[in-house]
TrEMBL record:
SMART domains: Flavin_Reduct
One of the record's GO molecular function terms: oxidoreductase activity, acting on the CH-NH group of donors, NAD or NADP as acceptor
Protein name, UniProt field: NADH-FMN oxidoreductase RutF, flavin reductase (DIM6/NTAB) family
Domain Flavin reductase like: 27-180
Protein's organism: Bradyrhizobium erythrophlei
Domain of life according to the entry: Bacteria
Record Gene3D superfamilies: Electron Transport, Fmn-binding Protein, Chain A
Length: 210
């Protein structure tokens, strides 16, 4: 790379529009892990939905979180019960994961729509996806409404939870190490339906200088 050679840059201020066919924001911040979140409301209705704004935020305690761009069933359920489960979305489960993104009545279970097995949690009263190789049972820590630099509230809520129980398919563990790519996780890219599949041959290692 030669920084002395000027690049032909596309510049824009988001508040004024991006000037492209598709908003590049999601495509630039990619790939993003999928927050495949199962939850239950106080009346026992079960929900399962994918969120593209998802990640891990803390080691001790282990905290994960997802952001919903509106007040959706998942957030409402978690606020009511204080519990949720994250499930790893893989290439083998891609179609089922996509099916759970459908807008259906609150009483309709996405588990049934997608033909997935709802396995009861051990420490939370929320089921995990039985077909998923990894699931995290979580207890709610915070729900934060996001805001802009001007302090104006956004129609987006960040839900954070402490991981209190972990389920891992032992087939994903080799010599005591979880093999990230072995499960072939899928991750979100840009536009409305772009994804990547993580494969073992695409991985490489760099040892930190310290």
């Amino acid at each position: 790379m030669d920084a002395s050679t000027p690049k032909d840059l596309h510049f824009y201020e988001p508040k004024n529009g991006h000037g492209l066919k598709h908003d590049p924001f999601n495509a630039v911040i990619a790939p993003r892990p999928i927050g495949w979140i199962s939850s239950r409301d106080a009346r026992g209705n079960i929900n399962l939905a994918p969120y593209s704004f998802f990640n891990g935020f803390c080691y001790t305690p282990p905290i994960i979180g997802f952001s919903s761009t509106s007040w959706k069933d998942s957030v409402a359920n978690i606020q009511e019960t204080g519990e949720f489960v994250w499930n790893l979305a893989t290439m083998d489960l891609a179609k089922q994961m996509n099916a759970t993104a459908a807008h259906v009545d609150h009483e309709v279970s996405e588990f049934k729509i997608a033909g997935l097995t709802a396995v009861p949690g051990k420490l939370v009263n929320v089921p995990r996806v039985g077909e998923s190789p990894v699931s995290f049972e979580c207890k709610l820590t915070q729900i934060i409404q996001l805001q802009g630099a001007d302090g104006k509230k956004a129609q987006a809520w960040l839900t954070l939870g402490e991981v209190v129980a972990v389920h891992i398919d032992k087939a994903m563990i080799k010599d005591g190490v979880y093999q990230t790519a072995l499960a072939r996780p899928i991750v979100r890219a840009g536009r409305r339906g772009d994804y990547f599949e993580i494969r073992p041959e695409a991985m490489f290692e760099m040892v930190r200088p310290d």
